[in-house]
Amino acid sequence: MSAGAALVQQEGGATPDPQPAAPDRTLAPFGRRLATVTRNESIGAYRLLWAADPEAPAPRAGQFAMIAAAERWGGGAGERPYLPRAFSIALTSPAGETAFLLEDVGPGTHRLCELSEGDRLWVLGPLGRGFSDPPLHGRRTILVGGGIGIAALTLLVQAREPLSARGESPPQGTGGSPQPSTPGASGLPAGGERRCEALTVLAGFRSGAHAQGASLLGAASIATDDGSVGHAGRVTDLLHAELARGTDAVVRACGPPAMLEAVRSICERERVPAELALEASMACGFGACYGCVVPRRGGGYLRVCVDGPVVDAAELASVPGGGGQ
Amino acid sequence: MSVELCGMQLAHPVINGSGTFDAIAAERVFGTELIELFPFSAYVSKTITLRAREGNPPPRLWEAPAGLINSIGLPNRGLDAYLAEDLPRLARLPVPLITNVMGSTAEELAELAGACETRPQIAAIELNVSCPNVKTGLDIGSDPEQLHGVTRAVRRRTGKPLIVKLTPNAADVPACAQAAQDGGADAVSLINTLRAAALRPGDRRPWLGGGTGGLSGPAIRAVALAQVAAVAARVSIPIVGMGGIQCAEHAREMIAAGADIVAVGTESFRDPTVAAQIAAQLREPVASP
To answer: Does B206 contact A at CB distance below 8 Å?
Structure first.
């Protein structure tokens, strides 16, 4: 008798209800998979790493995966990395590829950024709680992304407007080394704003090189700290302006802690429902290590990996590391 | 490859280290596949205390060279919530359940063991003795005399198999193992994490919210091999060996050092099914070196 059969038998008895279906997440296959890198594209300051992972279930937007290079994972700066790294599942392609948006900021991301076609990648996922679906009725959706945090939002954009010339099929004859990519067919938005029907996308970046990441977001309004692209200032300036037109909106945001805290605070003040995709360092990604906690409003902690990374903003009194307000 | 530990029949010799696998959370992530492919031959719960604990303030993790420093602080909802809410779910796992408990006095530990004693779903009890004595500040488990006392106190309250999880942060670990055996333990498990610190880049202040933490992972395997061998030379009760095991060869080495079965901990963070892979490889014949 399989273990599964034993479980079902017992569930028929007086034991607690079986685990309810999980509408907030796609379940992960139990075990990490060996995926094969198909592309490593340069997008300004970022890299978009594509890997063929045909057994991956379709993720819910906002979910993440734990990834690690199958070879030479370790032995970098400080004899790291050791643990896999958590990344939003940025995009998927009909060909069974998954893409992760990377920035080379440490030994783990450095190793991942140097992978090229044919290299192998361990992938565990999809993990965590994704964005709710569908959004609240009668409200338009505003996506707010900051820096590499846009990667948690791209599947929401992709679901709305399938991206042309991006990701549908493996590239032809790209050779073994990373290829500089061309930004999306539309290029960078001109800083003006175009609105998809009931979907407004706002994105903030440090610099023009980082702002090239906005090519993954379709038509987005851009803010940059250095003013090189779009609005000179913060993406929350754009959010303020957007909400000034009306607060009949739901906000979904991902970005650095200070940005997320600003978004949380604005939405609380304006009584706009918001979901925030949090970032935390984690060892496992599936609730085992209890390392990735953030304080929950009212006491206790949330585990970002299983209770998030997407949380209702009302679950937090403030975003950790965001300076509080 | 089935093995027996303290009267428990285990399908293979690989279990989890306490606090390194949360079966309830994992079922939220992996669904029923977790149950169907459950990787461990017994499941050791995270540490349960009499009263609920929130755990340490973050940050709780630091990646070390070939290892991990954690300062989690044993968050749990306390004995009553464990028995009422977690136990029925953990009892659905297809393997024996070992409940790990910690208290800061012999009385607390005895109360925890007494509560476990009445629950048929609990196959065995593991004592976490890496807890500071409230008076001396020293870990109970680092002092053979205290360890002997708490083991005896718990032994009187339970007929279930009793495993004492030894701390490696002791001057004389074999003496602690001896004290556990003399106090009535049916087995010892080792090693727990090594006390460790990490400093924040820049200002060099402690990184971990808890001040210090425990080091685990491949970085400690060599220490574990030495401590398991030293304990095996001293005591006759079974040994659960752990510390940095990543693969079947590491498990074989731990068994060669004196362990009866092994536990996998931090490596499960990297690969949650690694214990099952190790178990499968242990079934294969070994080529002579």
So the answer is: no
